[in-house]
Amino acid sequence: MKDALYGGVNAAVLTPMHADLSIDLDRMAAHCRWLLANGCNGLAVLGTTGEANSLGLDERIAVLEGLVERGIPAARMLPGTGTTNITDTVLLTRAAEAAGCRGALLLPPFYYKNPSDDGLLAYFNEVIQRVAGDIRLYLYNFPQQSAVPFTVSFIDRLRSANPGKVKGLKDSSGDYDNALAYVEAFADDGFEVYAGDDSLLKPLLEKGSAGCITAAANVNCAIGARVYAGWQGPDAAAAQTMLTATRKAVTSVPLIPGLKALVARNTGDAGWHNIRPPHLKLTEAQQAVLFNTFDASGVRLAKAA
Amino acid sequence: MKDALYGGVNAAVLTPMHADLSIDLDRMAAHCRWLLANGCNGLAVLGTTGEANSLGLDERIAVLEGLVERGIPAARMLPGTGTTNITDTVLLTRAAEAAGCRGALLLPPFYYKNPSDDGLLAYFNEVIQRVAGDIRLYLYNFPQQSAVPFTVSFIDRLRSANPGKVKGLKDSSGDYDNALAYVEAFADDGFEVYAGDDSLLKPLLEKGSAGCITAAANVNCAIGARVYAGWQGPDAAAAQTMLTATRKAVTSVPLIPGLKALVARNTGDAGWHNIRPPHLKLTEAQQAVLFNTFDASGVRLAKAA
User: Fold this and answer.
1) pTM of structure
2) Are A279 and B54 in contact (CB < 8 Å)?
3) Which of A172, B147, B152, B238 gives A142 a disulfide partner, CB atoms 3.0 to 4.6 angstroms apart?
């Protein structure tokens, strides 16, 4: 689709850490540069893959500011700013706008299970009203983790109540039909639907989606970019097959430590394995499975600088 | 059981708000005084019922400090200090100790579904190590909301790794057998198990539990105290029946707005209805159902000062 703020491949950027689990902003900025140089259009920092919910409130702000200070273009960043509550969600979203971001990706208030659509609407209306400003909001549909799905009728009500504010959605349901319903309902109005599952990139581009925002893009962005650039061309099917194979590989083990292990291997930097509990580093056996299945996809990572 | 820090009836204290949804600390302190004067032994502020996950990080600290400033005894408070991450959990738990609290009630890192026991153990070990200090930790088992249950074997490992630190558990599973398993495994060592469901107060006291921490105690603490004071006596069965009836009444409608409605009625203060989205005030119809079923229990609230 045209005029998408984050059209193309966006990585749900990993958050590297020092041995004491503090955030390594230098290593993170280097990884962001590698992503932008290797096919990523945008950087969805501070999402599930970025362990945002394992970071403290101040740490989340420090990541935003620290990356901008290190020269990462804020306009390419789509930070996760959703929390369980209005107060901190507003604070983070305003910090994202202050840092120069054009959009922010919002989880629903995920502590509460099965809130009513009226309650969710009141929540997001309050967030949007308090954020004010020009930043555009993207909804993060991830019912397996947040337990709160966004329905088409809910999005319709939210957009009507807040014209021009809600610009798109990342769908991590993994369900093609669910994502397609968003595209069919809203894409004509410029609503940007992003696949959260690499295997759905080409199928949803064919229907009018804006691209993808995925965890696996930390390692498969170059091949994702090939799919995006040529999805109507002769190479697309083969590229999508490779992309789907990398997705399968990284989801064959715990996802976040697995992605960190692949980056550790590519950078030769064992510090990349550091991860906050309750996540744990991969075992040797898990790592062997991952490396074998990933390498079998045929994808090779460009060396880090 | 003897020597429990919070032995008896503890209310999961409601958080009153102004019309703009900011926290009303004066009204909250008055409610705390009413609870202590009407049968509550302890005040489990900032829990699920206190909408803690609808409050910002700074607001949670402001509640602790604001109540102490208003004369609420910190030694009677058992604040919820669990968040999704180590950083803020440590910050809140240290703030609780600094405010004078002897214990804090910790949710597991609830964003992640089904973390491994090894991962959970690493999480809590890190929290305990960083908190340092003398504050005792209580685990909050609420799998319906947090999706992460604490097993007996997990608690055993955690206590062994951190001698003297993990002093008890609130079980909101609503499952008698689950709570009983904790009591049987650990009560002899002074581990305080609190029922999260009023209907289990007497049955679990008979087995060696320390009391209860419940939402309904905001309105039924006087009758809960009767059960606790005389659970081996002739009045206990009748008191438990009334207590269970109030529990049924308040869970016949959305729990938190329902409790706020009952306090609003008792205080004659409509401001008590204020609640943060995604929770919503009760409808008139829901309120009628609640008031009818609650009044049918025979329990009458002592007038607020």
Assistant:
1) 0.97
2) no
3) A172
